[in-house]
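[#protein-structures] MJ: dropping RNA-directed DNA polymerase here for a structure pass
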Amino acid sequence: MQEHQGKNRPIVYASRTLNKAEKNYAVTEIEALAVVWALKKFKYIIYGYSIEILTDHKPLLHLFKGKDLSGRMSRWLLTVHDYMPTFTYIKGKANVAADALSGNCALTCAVSTETPTFDTLTHTDIFKAQRDDPMWSKVISYLETGNDLDLPHVPSLSHYVLQDDILYKATTLTGKYEPSRLIHQLVIPQTLVPSVLKLIHDTSHASHPGKEKTLSQARLKYFWLTMRRDINNHIDLCHTCARTKGNIHPHVPILSYPVPSSPWDVIAIDLLKLPLTERGNQYMLVCVDHFSRFSVLVPIPNKAAQTVARAILNYVICPFTTPKVILSDNGTEFVNQVLISLCKEFNIKKANVLPYRPSANGLVERHNRKIINTLRSLVPDTNTLWDTYTPQVMASLNSTINKSISETPHYILFAQDKRLPYELLAKKPNPVYNMDDFVKTNVHTFQQIHQRIQHSLALSKADMLLYHNKSASNFSLEIGDIVYSLVEVKHSKLDPKFDGPFRMIVKEHGNKVKLLRLKNHTETTAHLDSLKKVHSGLDCEDPQFIPTVSQPPHSPPPPASPENPPFFSQPPQHSYNLRSHT
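AK: finished. structure tokens for RNA-directed DNA polymerase:
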């Protein structure tokens, strides 16, 4: 606050909750934490000015004058001294500004401003609405007077009765396992249908049931001619149901991808987190060549950007060659300026798979399983010596026949099998060549190997596509379709299953699409396997979402004018005009 004309006027409000560790602090420590946090929060407003801190906790007046503070309090003391504040005690009942943010927190959280309120249907509302309805008013007139002039065609007219001047329909309710019983359904005129739909579906005691359950529950009490259609449309346009229920589309057929033409064209990299070793290594950098399946394993102490980039340079680029493409996930150890600079310097294309889709980098993920299984059988029970076994694991992987290429990775790179200690039989001596003959022979051998491996990879790819696409189904999305995206990381089991709504704006390569979040106009990329298509009118139900327009969705909206008023000044398409009450 700042004093103005003799009164303290607020400049800005701020508050936050305590984290798990801070909840264990003593009362005085929590009060001191509030002071330190506020000083840091308002630093750019208050720094360099005379500051007075008003508190209703007296120990704070002398706490930061102490000389024997240690640990956390001593660090806080240094922060407070940077601002040189003056502490003033005020009574608790006078500290109304802070109490408004802290003392009423529980009440504010319990009564959420996002919780909708709903009308109940009163006798007067129903009486008036039924007599204002063009069809039901004539039925009521017929029942009261017996005059059937202008009486519309109503199925089962004899089932309608008047009770307390309200129109009901007598219906026999039949169940699969229960005997039938007679019920009286309240006839709902068209003007009250939106109110009833919200009462039987959106309220807390209804809890957003599915279409059939909502219809069954509605038929216990209400009747109107288009019940099933209106209920289905209402649930199709329910944001809560779209975010919390349903399932994503079954996986789509994967598209064909190019087979690399030679070793080190494409390498896939990933990090394995393992137990901390005696040498201080906790991660293993795994690099796999897509063509030869040759593996390079590097133990590293951490996953800092410099550490990962240095390992790629020292153990892949320098001893072997520069790859054309490096494929990785979206971890910060791979998406950073250091690795981008390394790729730019060596003219390497850096490619990232979509988040939460490890199958897109499946080659290195399968190698990770092989590495874990091999280490589990080699490493002693202490698990702190795995980095000393890394060369043996790498030799085992590279000298074993790979199923996809029907050869060993070492043979593909060096045109000869790896000489291993257990090879006891003496081999025939290699022929002696001069330099020119040796080069020609090797070139011819490598050409044959590469052609055979390309053929094997093509057959392996065809088998994989056939196996995957056997249970896949097509998912057709067009520009402008409304979708929800699966929430991959949930902090609680009660978190919504889906995020959205989004509008599809661009079809990208493969099964990826670019989406526009309708709430704040931010763009994101998603895979079709993580999406759920919803009703096209869902985004127009809530006025905070942007409607479908003719111009590209990611272009800025046209300026407001008398001919083109801003969207937020227009009423929503489905305006129910419910009276709010508590």
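MJ: nice. The two ends are 34 Å apart (CA to CA).
AK: one more thing. Residues 105-116, 540-582 have pLDDT under 50 and may be disordered.
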